[in-house]
Design a protein that fits this description.
With 271 residues, this protein is an alpha/beta fold. Helix content is 31%, strand content 16%. The protein is globular. The structure holds manganese (II) ion.
């Protein structure tokens, strides 16, 4: 049995299938972890969802910001413009209801004690222990069914898990838009090594404990992040003409497997 994690797929169904062939993935024996953002941006998002759902129990997916927006947007009588811009095709799908129900089952963090790995779409706060992070994720998952029960502080935690990139040591995250602009920082880029900013990649500010290992995605501009033994960012920008990356989690050498992808859309520095 092998366990693989794969980065953000964003509708790149052909490349996802090619990567599964490249690692000779066997659904009867192997397991697959997906970091979320299966949908939007790329050419075949519905195919990706349908393929992943057809694979059944051998696949574990955590919720990305694109799935989260779809979960809320699909439930609205008048869906928000930002949802429609990226995801209007979901409303037209013959299996829209099943897809919506399935998205609602996706956890915000997946942790496998035996394997010794955790997975989150974007980030963890430096203020959380791993166990606090699991607890926040569980509470939030229950609250997603009733969005009106989500308090501002819960919303902040939800944003960290699904959209976080840069933060201060005090756990203040930098969000795109005015918040980043007033500080003169590009929230999509990794700061230069010598940059005099309190905002760094979230994983730089965590005091990692022995045995903590986290897989994440969401950061195509940073590219592949390979920081053994604690953190591995697998969003290598496939939809932007980068690569789709798999990492084998149960092999102590943590080997990487990649396929090339055409440039379906341009990656711009302002997101
Ligand atoms: Mn994302």
């Amino acid at each position: 049995m092998a366990v693989y994690a794969i980065g953000d797929i964003h509708g790149c169904a052909r490349e996802f299938e090619a990567l599964l062939r490249h690692i000779a993935f066997n659904p009867q024996q192997d397991r697959l972890w997906l970091v979320g953002d299966l949908i939007n941006r790329g050419p075949f998002p519905l195919e990706v969802i349908r393929l992943v759902r057809s694979m059944g129990d051998c696949v574990t997916v955590v919720m990305g910001n694109h799935e989260l927006r779809a979960l809320f947007g699909m439930a609205e009588a008048t869906p928000p413009v930002n949802f429609l811009r990226h995801s209007a095709y979901l409303l037209e799908a013959s299996d829209a209801q099943e897809i919506h129900g399935w998205i609602g089952t996706l956890p915000l963090i997946h942790h496998d004690e035996t394997l010794g790995w955790s997975m989150v779409h974007a980030a963890l706060s430096p203020l959380w222990s791993m166990h606090q992070a699991y607890s926040h994720a569980r509470t939030l998952s229950h609250a997603l069914i009733r969005p009106d029960t989500i308090t501002p502080s819960m919303r902040y935690s939800l944003n960290i898990l699904t959209k976080g990139r840069l933060c201060s040591r005090q756990g203040e995250f930098l969000w795109p838009g005015n918040h980043a602009n007033v500080r003169g920082i590009n929230p999509y880029r990794l700061p230069e090594e010598d940059a005099s900013t309190p905002y760094h990649a979230w994983f730089e500010h965590r005091s990692w404990q022995a045995g903590e290992r986290v897989i994440f995605g969401h950061w195509a501009m940073a590219g592949l992040i390979y920081r053994p033994p604690h953190c591995f960012g697998l969003d290598s920008g496939c939809v932007y003409g980068g690569k789709l990356t798999a990492m084998r989690l149960d092999d102590p050498a943590w080997p990487l497997f990649q396929v090339d992808c055409p440039t379906y859309i341009q990656l711009s520095g302002d997101g």
